[in-house]
Design goal:
The protein is mainly alpha-helical and 383 residues long. The chain has 13 helices and 5 strands. The chain has a domain of 112 residues. Strands 2-3-4 form a 3-stranded antiparallel beta sheet. The chain starts with 6 loop residues before the first strand and ends with a strand.
Length: 383
């Protein structure tokens, strides 16, 4: 082998991915300040500090970046030995929400006070990626058999049920199961099984929506049934469950093609509750227009493309599945968030990765990307 074709192992750094991450994080901090400054400045609970949310998000982002760098320099196989423990610990942390360590905010008990506020559902997403990547590798060719396939498919179910029933966070439960489903889809060649599962879920979902629509507000389906009814006809529920959705649609519509200008949103002035969280994409569209919204979506598509390249070139199945899990997490969460904001699906609490306010979310997303960079460093390439 000649000098200019010698193989080198390790050292690969995806600078395009680094650039995309920095742009998304920087833009996210700008939008968190833009969407939250009014609410924070008029709130005595927040010391009338317009930069309150920005400071907390900036701290979480810096911690997340440090963790990403640390994880990226550790060989990713180091974490394989902790995959099972991560699964168990995530269950314990979810159960701790029921103890005095649990924190209730905005009517939901989803956080733990561990010195800092932590959301166990975000930890569970990372733990599920590690556990399933390790589990699938141990199963090997047994995943082709029905028993192995069902073992992997059922692995996330206990955590999904705990996240849903204990923290009342169905959106995170859906994301955790979706991550597992995507990883299993990539690892298993039995595509007919996936087609059957998807068709069954769509059919059951359509039937449920039809039943709720027929039953109406008095059908006894609780607040989730009310959200489906508001999704089907938000104007009829404009003073209740449809209020946030309508205000988000007003924001998107009023932004036009190029928006009102950064910081010029009117819907964030008390009209959209907690605008810096799940509905931040609507403020992006109001201030930066359809052009700004499309640019953000394109950035996420570019990120997923770079992740796919790393997954395809991973040195082994475990590394490839780790990257696929991270890719599935980000793609599902972006898709669901944009779908909720545009009223394509019923309203549920799903943040926009790297942009919405949420310290635990951004920290663990960056840790996941640290795993991706660790896999990338092990890729063999030619000079």
């Amino acid at each position: 082998m000649t000098q200019d074709k010698r193989r080198r192992i390790g050292g690969y750094v995806d600078y395009s991915l680094i650039f995309i991450i920095i742009v998304l994080l920087g833009f996210g901090l700008i939008m968190v300040y833009s969407t939250s400054s009014y609410e924070a400045s008029v709130s005595s609970k927040l010391q009338n500090d317009a930069a309150f949310y920005l400071k907390k998000q900036m701290f979480a982002t810096l911690v997340g970046l440090i963790m990403m760098i640390l994880v990226s320099v550790i060989p990713y196989h180091f974490w394989e030995r902790f995959a099972g423990w991560g699964y168990i610990v995530s269950i314990i942390l979810i159960l701790l929400v029921l103890t005095p360590l649990g924190i209730e905010a905005n009517g939901a008990r989803r956080w733990l006070n561990l010195g800092i506020s932590v959301q166990p559902a975000e930890i569970a997403k990372l733990a599920m990626i590690l556990f399933l990547a390790s589990f699938v590798c141990k199963l090997g060719n047994n995943i082709r058999h029905r028993k192995g396939f069902l073992f992997v498919l059922c692995a996330p179910v206990p955590i999904c049920l705990l996240v849903w029933l204990i923290t009342d966070n169905m959106s995170s439960a859906i994301i955790i199961f979706a991550i597992a489903f995507i990883m299993l889809f990539v690892a298993s060649p039995e595509y007919k099984r996936f087609a059957a599962i998807v068709i069954s879920v769509v059919a059951l979902g359509t039937l449920l929506i039809f039943v709720i629509a027929k039953a109406g507000a008095g059908g006894g389906f609780g607040f989730r049934g009310a959200r489906i009814l508001a999704w089907l006809n938000p104007e009829a529920y404009s003073s209740g469950t449809g209020f946030q959705t309508l205000q988000a649609l007003y924001a998107i519509g009023s932004g036009g093609i190029f928006g009102k200008g950064l910081g010029q949103s009117t819907q964030k002035l008390g009209f959209i509750p907690e605008a810096q969280n799940d509905m931040i994409f609507s403020i992006i569209c109001e201030e930066l227009g359809l052009f700004g919204g499309i640019c953000i979506i394109l950035l996420f598509i570019l990120m997923l493309w770079r992740l796919m390249i790393i997954a395809n070139n991973a040195p082994d199945l475990f590394g490839g599945l780790l990257v696929v899990g991270v890719m599935g997490h980000i793609s599902v969460q972006v898709l669901l968030n944009v779908a909720v904001v545009t009223n394509t699906i019923p309203n549920t609490g799903i943040s926009l990765p790297f942009i919405s306010y949420g310290g635990t979310s951004v920290m663990f997303l960056l840790i996941e990307l640290g795993l991706v960079f660790s896999v990338a460093r092990s890729i063999e390439f030619k000079d």
